[in-house]
Design goal:
The chain is of the alpha/beta class and about 325 residues long. Helices cover about 30% and strands about 25% of the residues. It has two domains: about 170 residues, 3-Layer(aba) Sandwich (Peroxisomal Thiolase, Chain A, domain 1), CATH 3.40.47.10; about 150 residues, Thiolase/Chalcone synthase (Peroxisomal Thiolase, Chain A, domain 1). The radius of gyration is 19 Å and the shape is globular.
Amino acid sequence: MYSSKIIGLGHHVPETVITNQYLSNLMDTNNEWIVERTGINERRWIDPKVDTVANMAAKATRMALKNAKLTEQDIDFIVFATITPDYFFPGSGVLLQRELGLDGRIGAIDIRNACSGFIYALSVADQFIKTGMYKNVLVVGAEIQSTALDITTRGRNTAVIFGDGAGAAILQRSDKPGVLSTHLHSDGHFAEELYVKDPGSSRPHAERQPEQILDTTSFKVVMNGSQVFKHAVVRFNEVINEALEKNNLKKEDINLLIPHQANLRISQFIQQKLALRDDQVFNNIMRYGNTTAASIPIAMSEAWAEGRIKENDLLCLAAFGSGFTWASALIRW
């Protein structure tokens, strides 16, 4: 059986920087309130005239391909993680395929696992490579959350959190260790603690058609923040330890932990729980907010560019989010 190695990383974020001060002009909030609860100072929001999920993903992909010394034609398959596709259907995987000029030559699938989406997508790509089906698989996480946010005091608990962006990784078949293992979990009992209800299919015709709806609150993000935090800190710790135990490793062996950038308080809690130093954990939520499925690949790309990931390092990825779903991956760089 083959191994899969990440040989290229890339990311793209929109140009528009949204500061906490800017949001305080739109709703009853302030910089101190946001930083204390989330750790976020600013985030990026798209320009709807310029940015799409697919074209941001394409820009991140081209950076990853350049770093991997490959071209678009070397890609064998696309695994695209997003919960904010450009269309309700088809998924953004085929739109990215079109952006890259690979029409009809390769397949593409979409993963809808929200904040855990990138690790789920990584796991899918890893299996394709390990079985010998593909050699080079593109794994992408990309999101546009800003256009769905309730930018009022009513929606401030979520409006201050989310940002837009894209990250990409190229996985390649290798005879050396790379992705050591991935671990995926879910518990649908908590689905409504963090979700967007509509446009859902299990509604009467009159309720499903947006042009007939006056109340659009069911199209906004609903989040029970305390429930999410309570479960996240437990599941993060569990799934990280699961990965370490699977590979007969200890937390001291981790060179860099890259958690999903949901909330700086969660990341700091996990760091304390695992007794990791600051240089063993990478956070960039301060600059980008929560970019959902894009957060881990953006963070990986930045960490690699900053020299925080070196050859033979042990890298741990971990995520928790809507579903509830949670996941981890252990990677030998």
